[in-house]
Amino acid sequence: MINFAVIGTNFITEYFLSAAKKCENFRLLGVHSRNADKAHAFADKWDAEKIYTDYDVLASDREIDAVYIATPNGTHKNLALQMLNSKKHVIVEKSAAANSREWQEMITCAKNNGVVLLEALRTVYNPNYHLLQTLLPKLGTIRRVVLSCCSYSSRYDNFRNGIIENAFRPELANGALMDLGVYALSFLVGLFGAPKEIKASAIILKDSIDGVGSITCTYDTFLADVMYGKVSPASNICEIQGEEGFISITGMNAPTAITVKLRNGEIITPELESAPFPSDLIYEVRAFTDMVLKNDGSEDRQNLRTKQVLEIMDEARKQQGIIFPNDLKNV
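The structure assignment produced for this chain is given below.
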């Protein structure tokens, strides 16, 4: 059994816990919030024994084996380094860091301390995503990939009324790319690796951050068009097109329908594993707990993907003119 503490008491942490509580190796022991009342209320709701309002106290608690971090992106690195240096395993919400340089610092720290670090990103651990990988050879040479991850943020109404929440604050390393584009890029890089080059554009919200954006990624044999946004709803039906046919995917970040249509007339509609959100987060929790129990470096492949995705996002933001305060540190 792995004793966990969570840092952050927002709805993302609730989603995580609703799935993690069903994982056989997970035990929630502690809750951190800067507000003691919130920490107590959250701990009572989720049956946690301990509360913390001080990061140093949490870091020094030897009963805690692992920490889940769900604070704004711009705070991930420093919190993760503190916990990793205290010999605690860390799973950190996407986007794992504000930029690739920070992520590399985190990886180095984890290795130096002999603990596991992982980005919490449900897409790449979903069994339907792995099924999709087995279908790709049927398409022959891939020629185009079209990925969409767009939604209307629950916080956008407040933004339109002049109330700026964390999701729309560039100083916290947030925005459409970091919050939603990361899903599509992780999906892409997990299947095909890093592209040769990218071209990116975005619409910047007034006095804020990117609301919508697009990135065209060039590979040896195909182009990949990645679209993302948090200010408008969308069907988010995606396609992978090859010379022998195409695959359409509904629910890219957790596929709910996959259809293969080949030039020879064959149609394949595989049966998918059903685990509706947020229950499907159990796949990332199981992956992380397995890595912690083995502690054999099996997280390295996923951490490389995270690094490659962050490098793409670094370059995209450079082209889009988006600079975070974190980008200006240690340079």
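Interim note for the steering committee: The chain has a mean pLDDT of 95. The chain has ten helices and 14 strands.
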